[in-house]
Design a protein that fits this description.
The structure holds 2 protein chains of 2 kinds. By secondary structure, chain A is mainly beta. Chain A folds into 2 domains: about 80 residues, no CATH class; about 280 residues. Helices cover about 10% and strands about 35% of the residues of chain A. Chain A has a 20-stranded parallel beta sheet that branches. Chain A has a 12-stranded mixed beta sheet with strand order 4-7-9-11-14-17-20-23-26-29-31-32. By secondary structure, chain B is α+β, with helices and mostly antiparallel strands. In chain B, the strands form 3 sheets. Chain B has a 6-stranded antiparallel beta sheet with strand order 1-2-3-4-5-6, covered by helices on one side. In chain B, strands 7-8 form a two-stranded antiparallel sheet. Chain B has a two-stranded antiparallel ribbon with strand order 9-10. The model of chain B has no long low-confidence stretch (mean pLDDT about 90). The chains are: A mainly beta, B alpha+beta. Chains A and B meet through helix 2 of A and helix 3 of B.
Chain lengths: ~400, ~325
């Protein structure tokens, strides 16, 4: 009889005639009940997590394609990892076509939610938070999709990451929108990725707001084609609390949008204000590297149509205060280190160039001057389009 | 009369010999598509507490094993009658459909007592089915009479007296079914780790597998990893490399397999990329001659789950393993 039932379910599953819902409520043994549901789910199924606080001791994982994990709301269903004993992230996804929505992950020892080689993943109305606020022992990344194609992060909140709140790495076709990132070292970071739209986000109280980076010695390099638009990037002045030995540990506090070693980047129609180092910083990767396929300079970057508020009154990088003095007490809102090509700025604010001529040249040798960067650029606009199934998952 | 008695005795002997003949291993459950609820369903053992293996279920050990919070491990391999695994010098042997590996974890009450019974906590089963290997975790009941499938994993208290006479107590983590893949993975499929020529080869074991009809051949020139804690068995470097091969190669971001020749792949003078606070502010994965500046050792010495490596199956520090790797790194560049 049992075998018959299993066969019947398998038949139904194969024709998608009936998707099952596995409901998990808060209470004793939540760890095992929730993890078992995530293992037993079949493609097409939903794991419905009830309202309440789920006390978890170990990271969860999902390795089944086409599963929706859904809570009762990002303040109603709380996966609480404050007593986490086992390693790693709160939730790890390693399958395709997964939708995560309407729940919170709190106080993980490692990353909040990670998805790896998980194509067409949707994160919607999720909150990831370290409730003690900024602390170097907080987990590194809040929302962490990596090595994937087609990623949608929509309407999430991340607070307190010791690296990046929303970090997308080594991926392609990415949308990060309508999200709220606060008190992270980096609010949103797009790293070694291709084709990303970062828009309509509220980015505040981080060390650095939005970072578009490319780093050497990674399987996917040559980051290009990111559009950062319609974001509110204000008051990102939290002291850098990243642990040492980490690339974002070098991000100066007071940074709005920072582009490092990337190609074809647009920063348009954002409101950027009250960032003490600067609203926009365009720089080369200045550390040593041993990778002949890596280009450390920013190329083809267009900055236009942005509204700038106060910026640059307390630059957070070494030598920044002297530089500010030389510029009359404050840096202009936009800073370029002088490296790279195709940098075009049409915003109605001054731009300072450090006048560096190579990526490895020490910033102490800067020859700062105000520059006009009008002109032509190869930077081109192209919206990221995601498969319909991903947008449909939000409805 | 005497003759009648002889017949009677013969008949009695026949009855007593045939009555308790154990059922063979349930090959249909190994190859089938169900997930048996109880470990006993497989008939891998003829007793109730997994100590007496059934026919064609062979106990074995390996040269250098994964550290799992000092748990004692019992390993068994099963290959269906009439079939053998195909030898491979580098990778795990190719086992035929219907094969199974059974690995039990537990603790004796006192490690100073060599004859102490092992209290079993969990038994992990790897089944070779047509579609590939399937990993299932079974957790023992309190009476120690059977183990039940727990796909979602479990945590159980474990305690013992260690070799120095100290009481140890941990929350023992039985991994969930997804976590098996964290280490047992090759090209997105579940893969064997232990049964490789280099880790089985002790000069006699593979030949005994051939004799038992488990393995097709055992070449005399098979590679070999030394026993990690036996200085008589290999150089410091060979034992350290063997230890890293077994404990770290699956999931470190480095390439720590025993025969890797590229120093940077091994972590020597390699800078961290995304280690976060896992780097401990140290500059290199392995800084030759400088264990205190090597991230690899920092993570072996960490208990914080956001830093500690390996990420699974280790809550306690492996003091003897740390000492080995410390010595290995310290000696580098100072030979």
């Amino acid at each position: 009889m049992k075998i018959f039932a299993a066969t019947a379910i398998a038949l139904l599953g194969s024709t998608s005639a009936l998707a099952a819902t596995h409901t998990v409520e808060a209470g004793p043994d939540a760890q095992e009940r929730l993890q078992t549901a995530l293992i037993e789910a079949q493609p097409g199924d939903t794991v419905q997590i009830g309202a309440g606080r789920f006390e978890l001791t170990d990271g969860l994982s999902l390795d089944v394609d086409n599963v929706t994990v859904r809570g009762a709301g990002s303040n109603a269903t709380i996966l609480d990892f404050s007593n986490q004993m086992g390693a790693g992230e709160g939730l790890m996804v390693t399958s395709n076509d997964v939708v995560l929505r309407d729940f919170a992950v709190e106080d993980t020892k490692g990353d909040g939610i990670k998805s790896k080689e998980a194509d067409r993943i949707v994160y919607h109305n999720i909150r990831v938070e370290w409730t003690r606020g900024p602390h170097p022992d907080n987990g590194a990344y809040g929302i962490y999709p990596v090595e994937s194609t087609h990623i949608l992060v929509d309407g999430v909140t991340v607070i307190g990451s010791s690296d990046a709140g929303i970090y997308v790495g080594q991926s392609d076709q990415i949308v990060v929108r309508n999200s709220n990132v606060q008190y992270n070292v980096a609010g949103i970071e797009i790293e070694n990725s291709h084709n990303a739209d970062v828009h309509n986000n509220f980015v505040t109280k981080n060390t650095g707001g939005i970072l578009v980076f490319d780093l050497p010695n990674l399987p996917q390099m040559g980051g290009h084609s990111t559009r950062v638009f319609n974001n509110l990037v204000v008051d990102n002045n939290t002291a850098n609390f990243a642990p040492a030995g980490n690339i974002v540990a070098s991000v100066p506090a007071g940074m709005g949008v920072m582009v490092m070693a990337n190609r074809n980047v647009e920063i348009t129609q954002n409101i950027m204000a009250d960032n003490a180092t600067g609203n926009v910083m365009l720089v080369a990767y200045s550390q040593d590297y041993d990778d002949e396929n890596y280009n450390p300079s920013p190329r083809d970057v267009r900055v236009s149509g942005n509204i700038h508020g106060r910026a640059g009154w307390a630059p957070g990088f070494p030598g920044g205060d002297m530089l500010a003095q030389a510029m009359g007490g404050s840096l202009p809102p936009i800073l370029w280190d002088g490296n790279g090509s195709g940098i075009v700025v049409s915003d109605d604010v001054p731009v300072v160039s450090l006048g560096l001529t190579s990526a490895s040249q020490p910033r102490g040798e800067a020859q700062p001057s105000l520059v006009e960067l009008h002109g032509e650029t190869e930077a081109t606009s192209q919206a990221v389009t995601l498969p319909d199934s991903m947008e449909a998952a939000l409805r | 009369m005497t003759r009648l008695l002889a017949v009677l005795i013969g008949w009695l002997a026949l009855v007593s010999a045939s009555a308790p003949a154990p059922a063979p291993v349930a090959l249909n459950l190994v190859t089938g598509d169900t997930l048996p609820e109880r470990l006993s369903d497989f008939h891998f053992f003829t007793d109730s507490n997994a100590q007496v293996p059934n026919e064609r279920v062979t106990p074995y050990t390996i040269n250098t094993q994964l550290f799992s919070d000092y748990a004692a491990k019992q390993r068994f391999v099963y290959v269906p009658p009439g079939l053998t695994a195909a030898y491979n010098p580098d990778e795990a042997f190719d086992f035929p459909i219907g094969s199974a590996f059974i690995k039990s974890f537990g603790y004796p009450a006192d490690f100073r007592d060599p004859d102490a019974e092992i209290r079993l906590i969990e038994t992990r089963v790897l089944l070779r089915r047509a579609e590939g290997w399937v990993a299932l975790p079974y957790v023992w009941n309190a009476e120690g009479t059977d183990a039940v499938l727990r796909r979602g994993g479990a945590r159980l208290p474990a305690s013992w007296i260690d070799e120095s006479g100290e009481r140890q107590q941990i929350s023992y983590r039985v991994p969930n079914q997804n976590q098996c893949k964290t280490c047992h993975e090759l090209d997105d499929e579940i893969a064997l780790l232990g049964p490789k020529a280099r880790n089985l080869n002790d000069g006699a074991r593979m030949a005994s597998w051939v004799d038992a009809g488990i393995l097709d051949r055992a070449p005399a020139d098979a590679p070999r990893v030394p026993v990690w804690d036996d200085p008589e068995d290999g150089t410091l470097e060979a034992r350290a490399r063997g230890y890293l091969d077994v404990n770290c190669a699956s999931n470190s971001g480095l390439f720590l397999t025993y025969d890797e020749a590229d120093p940077v792949a091994l972590g020597i003078l390699k800078r961290p990329v995304a280690a976060g606070r896992g780097s401990g502010g140290r500059a290199f994965d392995i800084a030759p001659g400088d264990p205190e500046d090597s991230i690899l050792l920092f993570r072996m010495e960490a208990s914080d789950p956001g830093i500690a490596m390996p990420e699974l199956g280790r809550e306690l520090l492996h003091r003897e393993g740390i000492a080995l790797i410390h010595a290995y790194i310290a000696r580098m560049g100072n030979e």
